[in-house]
Amino acid sequence: MQYRSGSEIREMFLKFFETKGHRRVHSSSLVPANDPTLLFTNAGMNQFKDVFLGLEHRDYNRATTSQKCVRAGGKHNDLENVGFTRRHHTFFEMLGNFSFGDYFKKDAIAYAWELVTSPEWFGIPKDRLYVTIFKGENGAGGSFAVPRDEEAYNLWLAQGVPADRIHEYGSKDNFWQMGDTGPCGPCSEIFYDMGIEAAEVPGVDKAFGQDEARYVEIWNLVFMQFDRNTHGELNLLPKPSIDTGMGLERTAAVLQGKISNFETDLFTPLIEKARLATLSGTTLPLTEDELEASYRIIADHSRAATFLISDGVLPSNEGRGYVLRKIMRRAIRHGRRLGTDKPFLSQMVYAVRDEMWTAYPELALNADRIAQVVLAEEVRFARTLSLGLARLEDALEEVREQQDHAFDIVGSDQLGFDDGYSEAEINEAKEIASRPAILPGAAAFRLYETYGLPFDFILDACHDAKIHLDIEGFERARAEEQARARASWKGGAKQSASPVFRELPKTVFEGYRQLTSTGCEVLAIIKDGQGVKAAAPGDAVEVVLNHTSFYADSGGQIGDTGWLYSDDHNSVVADVSGCTKPVQGVFAHKAILRQPLKIGDKVDTVVDGNFRNATRRNHTGTHLLHAALREVLGTHVKQAGSLVEPNRLRFDFSHFTSIADEELQDIEDLINKEVLGNTRVETIEDVPIDVAINEYHAMALFGEKYGEKVRVVKIGDFSTELCGGTHTGATGEIGVVKLLGEGSVSSGVRRVEAVTGLGALHEFRRDFAVAQLASQLSSSAEISPADALKQKLNAQEEELRKLRRELEQIRMKSAASAVSNAADQAIEVKGIKVLAQRVDSLDRGQMRTLVDNLRQKLGSGVVVLGSAQEEGKVALIVGVTKDLTGKVQAGKIVGQIAKLVGGSGGGRPDMAEAGGKDAGQLDAALGSVPKVVLQFVGE
């Protein structure tokens, strides 16, 4: 068995299958194209899912790939294990070979055994290999039984695998499915014996199946036969297919004689870079194992972060961006664990680029942009961490206060005082007082999740504060959050298309060159989701034709509208409101019938020319906008989404700051310079994707799914993109492009909206009307109409501010007058003056001011103000003069009062606030203030 580098293994695998007639296919994006059932691409077959389902047809039936994968969320979540095991990763590469209805088990098994064992290829000794098959189970596949895989068993025997090295397992191990729904089938796995030195218990020799550390799965051969629906039922796929997955990292460990994946050349350079990047001179009390785990985590997570950002994911608080943020922050936390508090993860981006750019050239182009995103997140997290530590201290203080309050209640009860507490409240206080102070697990998890505080930080802080941490509650809260995250990605399952769509040939699209197609045959009519042979006037249907001039929703551009005409070319058969692709390549016209229609009829498709022309002006304008943004703002700008309609265009892109007005002006000028140049818009059909990317240098758009042949849209030397949309023949047809403004969509993503053609003309007319109004306000030649309008608006705003201030002063005077003799109304509780007043007319800021004034009038005492707010809510503020905070604290008082109005709150010993939901109990709550103060002062 010869040593092979990770890069050599990847290339050998792909070349082997090319010799077997397979097409080498590029890795797809880590963001699954048009598949809401997946958080990230997590297996090699993801990009071929529609092919397995029969929704898409390609010009090859054998493929091989090295697929980028991430498993850090949803069903496949390895995040918490990474760094502490030999083989768990967030990012990894899956080598695979696929058959789409071509060969099946016999060839798949023969190919696998040849590649793995032949001296010409990997040359792994046969006596170190084991295989598994599906043993069969009743109900393993849902509603009916799937039998033992007798065929696979016999095929392995035929390859010379001894019977005692073929093991059988049930659906948990040997029935594979990508998700809760979709393609699935029995599988057969190849395992490698790492030797007794890799045993789970050092030196203990266990048989296959009893030691997961020693016997490592390196290849899974999935015999794709079924499609599981949302009810768990299995339906046969159109054709049996093959989907295999060989982990590059595991295979590298085998061929390089390493026990751990992290010891291979795929990771050792990154681990060394992590050591250098986190050097701080700080000596931390970590064992060697703990140090190595942190280095492994940084190396692994830097790969995941680099590739995810390269594929368009940005850190955020939801969805994919949230998982990316968790991965990055986990790496940053381990950097701090190693003693560094300075940004370091952004340096790791370049280390990942240097190791992997030959296989993934896009890393060389994107590294600077990726590093900028990572650095921004490191700086943001540093601020968040400081906030989190402050919130942790607040949470610990709240636990201390609860404990102190429980002791006060128990003490008062033991002395026989009647403080108005119910028996249940007294019993609860006794229970709290009888045990150590505990930080609830749910509260700790909120700190962990919201502020990214490491669990170890929280545990150590609790230990220092002599407060116990509810670890079981923490884990329970974490499990509930993971369940919610999984549930959020179960919706929108993509099912197999009904035979009505799936069995139809592709629609020939003729709309690039014409708005009308004649003699189009009706292949299918779908009404209420079911195929019908005929439909009547007034029916809402979807009509599938053998050819059409209608563009279907794709690439951000909405489908055409128009009409279906009868074959005599004179009467309208149906009004078409849009066109979609329910199955790849099949166009469905959404129509309301005016005349009867049946399968086999011939119709003419007539696209609304005004609709199409307005849409293509906006689409070509989008390409110009993308290129201008990159020229003005920088090449880090990448499309993150778009919408092209007849009346506007919307473009989302990666950028980290707002765009200045001057920059927007430059972008608009640059676009319209190209428009005025009337540059030809060239479309080049059926370009091999390698040629499009490497020779034409075409931009591939985020989230789009490309085949082996693509369409290139080229606008002079200004813009070149892969695009299937409709476009103008030259830029001059756009007329003019008017930017309407820009704003933030999410962290690191901005949005620009614009109009073209007649839409732009409408905007200019509206602006002109505003300018005319401004001109009327300008009475001096020395001031421009725009400045005159600004002055007028500023004067009105200042007048409004003045009126608001006067209204607030009136309210304050009224409230002050109402409580002018309030100090005289204060009652004494154990020698302490206590004043409680209701002030419904004041907001919280005014209430704070009044509390300060009343404390001064009292000289020494407690002031409580309550106010009924909008929607039945309550505001409470408590002030305690400084001389009394040793006896009674505002935070404790407000916490007790707030309970009576259905709320909670807290704050400093001298000033505290609370909110509530039951304004009807406000008077009762204020009336209870003396008793509450007595409770804390004691007898």
Automatic annotation (TrEMBL):
Location(s), subcellular: Cytoplasm
Residues that coordinate or bind Zn(2+): 619, 623, 723, 727
The keyword Oxidoreductase is assigned to this record: no
EC number(s) recorded for this UniProt protein: 6.1.1.7
Record GO cellular component, one term: cytosol
Keywords: Aminoacyl-tRNA synthetase, ATP-binding, Coiled coil, Cytoplasm, Ligase, Metal-binding, Nucleotide-binding, Protein biosynthesis, RNA-binding, tRNA-binding, Zinc
Biological process, per Gene Ontology: alanyl-tRNA aminoacylation; negative regulation of DNA-templated transcription
PROSITE patterns for this protein: AA_TRNA_LIGASE_II_ALA (PS50860)
Principal location class: cytoplasm
Domain notes per entry: Consists of three domains; the N-terminal catalytic domain, the editing domain and the C-terminal C-Ala domain. The editing domain removes incorrectly charged amino acids, while the C-Ala domain, along with tRNA(Ala), serves as a bridge to cooperatively bring together the editing and aminoacylation centers thus stimulating deacylation of misacylated tRNAs.
Function of the protein: Catalyzes the attachment of alanine to tRNA(Ala) in a two-step reaction: alanine is first activated by ATP to form Ala-AMP and then transferred to the acceptor end of tRNA(Ala). Also edits incorrectly charged Ser-tRNA(Ala) and Gly-tRNA(Ala) via its editing domain.
NCBIfam families attached to this UniProt entry: alaS
Family according to the record: Belongs to the class-II aminoacyl-tRNA synthetase family.
UniProt name for this protein: Alanine--tRNA ligase
Source lineage: Bacteria, Pseudomonadati, Acidobacteriota, Terriglobia, Terriglobales
Chain's gene name: alaS
